Predict the structure.
Amino acid sequence: MVAASLLEREPELGVLRAAVVEAAAGRGSVVLVLGEAGIGKTSLLRAFLDGVGGSAAVLSGSCDDLLTPRALGPLRDAARGRRGPLADALAGANPGAVFAAVTDELSGGANPTVLVVEDVHWADSATLDVVRYVGRRIGELPAVLLLTYRDDELGREHPLRGVLGGLTGPQVRRLVLRRLSPAAVSALAARTDVDPEALHRLTDGNPFYVTEALAAPGQAVPSTVVDAVLARLSRLSPDAQACLDQLAVVPSRVDLPMLRALCHDLAPVAEAEGLGVLEVGPDAVAFRHELARRAVFDSLPTTVRRQLNARVLRVLLDREPPDLFRVLHHAAAAGDDAVIAAFGPAAARDASFAGAHRQAVACYEQVLRGDLLSADERATLLDEYAWALYNVHELDRAVEAAAAAVRLWEQSGDVERLAQGLVTLSRQQWLVEQPAAALASAERARMLLEGQGDGAVQASVLLNSGAMLVVCDREVEAIGLLDEALAMAHRVGATAVVALAHNYRGSAALQLGDAAGEQELLHSVEIAEATGHHEYVTRGLYNLVEGLWRLGRHDDAIGYGDRAVEYARDRDFQIQMYFFAARRYRLLALRGRWDEAEAGIRALLDGQGDPGMPARETVPVLARILVRRGGEDAADVLALAAEHSNRADNLEWLIPTALGHIEHAWLTGQPELARPWAGRLLARTDRPGTERQRGELLRWLRRLGEPVVPFPGCPEPYSAALAGDWRRAADGHTDPYERALELAESGSVEPTLEALAVLEELGAEPAAAIVRRRLRGLGVVRSPRRQQTSTGTNPAGLTDRQVEILRLLGAGLTNAQIARRLLVSVRTVDHHVSAVLQKLGVRTRREAAATAMTLDMNS
């Protein structure tokens, strides 16, 4: 019989073969093979690899459906038994070396290389980071990166989605495997008595289901895949069925030594192989398909599963070194709390070390569920768990874990460990907008170790005290502590503390208006890069972005942000990517691209719940855009920003929130609403480093009728505006909205008309209404309304964003793909697509793409 999974797959095989030919010419590519379970992904892959022969080297690994996936598991599979850069990097002490090692592995050799990662929907975070890294560089490598996954298992928040969203361009091919046609099913059933139409109707053409149904005894087609599998297995002897039961609890390939340990008599294995249930290779055995394994597993009673898992666990524990992630999986399945307590912490630390933060969280949770840990062991794990939660942006849970660790250290009387726990707790408290508690925890830690001499923990405690003061806008107080921490860290060789001390010293300098802080922050980044402290690298670059932004050096700030994104996008740093994406949307808002900024910020906030301290980058910025547009939810978002600002009590929240409220007061003609915010901001900006923010504040107060004057050192263009020089003030702004407001101060018709045109184009209706009233005061009874320039530059009257959407429609992208490309929500794209169809007067996306060919969209 022809294998079902290879029928109707010649086009896909052709794409795979062509990818190897192109790789041999130096043009690498990514090939994504996707489809539902049983659709034939593995069979297609095997047929392709069997045909590669000596024309390409093959590195192959798979991801397993373990409780917690193995950190870098498929890469370890690929490197097993080989010598080379990848094997060396995996055996080394720097997990960051794996990135370069993979590309080195793919670059070497006379023939192209195919790197296969099967079932990547089960991959750990560290593996996904490597996939992301290689995928972005594959076009320059003589290689093919081949990924298989079940697309129907990717929920909205699945981590693979973010990786796939970054795999774009002509070097990426997607092979969506379809179900078999009625003709193919008929061909398969031709030598049987099964009705092919009934078979296709029941199986819907799923190749695995079709194969199992035809292999089942009897004339009736089994009604489900599970029924079909179990019907086939009923033909096996009791010994063979018992062997399959044992192997079914192992969600991966079973190597031959383990097979012999679990199934002493291999004759039943041969029987199952002969029936096509198992596949026996030179070094391992596995079910022919995961669906078959799952069918057997699901048929087992719970008590039997636990017994069978316990047998696997005993075999794993006899190995040296044990596979920690497999041990943890089978220990949990066997209910063996002692083994979980003994091996789970090491698995969690291995996952964290490799950058597989989600897997680390799962490991810690498994261990912490038990009650066999000592108080000290539990406290240590809770502290580590808090940092793992921080890395996956679970901030409230991180605080809970850190606080629980501190309570246990308090009971133990270990002062040094308690101080270290308070350092963790203070950082997490600050992130959830508990600044007073964060400062108190940091200070308590410092007092506990005061006078105890040099040490890495003492240096870390001093550093944290200084860092907390910097992020709470008390930079002058922080500098002495940071200097002391830096000196001690040098004396004891605490390189990580050295990097962070330079980081926060540089941040303090920039926040106080000292441009020399830029170089100190760059020095911090260099140290962190050299020592593999990846999170410290991105933290340093973020502090550069924030510090330079405060000084008005927006382009320089975004440049460092782009550098950070380039660095962080290959690693699973969710908080940092949130920060940098938000800052770019802030820049778009400053440039008058409000549609893009609003859509992007809403997408970042969508589904986040209470976003905590990181939302200082998004909520007040969104509030201000909505205030300027007169958005219906402007007051609600302003109130949310106010709530966070009051909790966080720092300038990063206060400045944009207060200015948003003050601007809202002016636009709505309610000056009394501005006074509380103006008073707070006047008090908090009377210090070095906030001259630009204070100048902007005074400019808004002048608009509200307050008798304010420029202060010494007041920067342009605010000093010009406060001095009454509207022209110099307007010319000093790059923000079209701010420039228009200054033009409207001219008292002359032409500049005021120009201001109105800009405001109308931006959609700044509240300010435009004020300007129209001014024009009437200047004798202009009917002010002309200009067509928005963005919709007047093409015959269809599309906005710039709609033109971009139309181009992507023409390229065949779905709404979800467009949303990922443009960093907006799918709902936003839906609205844009509807508007494009309406403006073009067409009904379908295909018609819109065809119409685009006739439009001049570059005029």
Strands lie at 29-34, 57-62, 113-118, 143-149, 172-176, 254-255, 278-280, 284-287. DSSP finds 45 helices and eight strands in the chain. The radius of gyration is 31 Å.
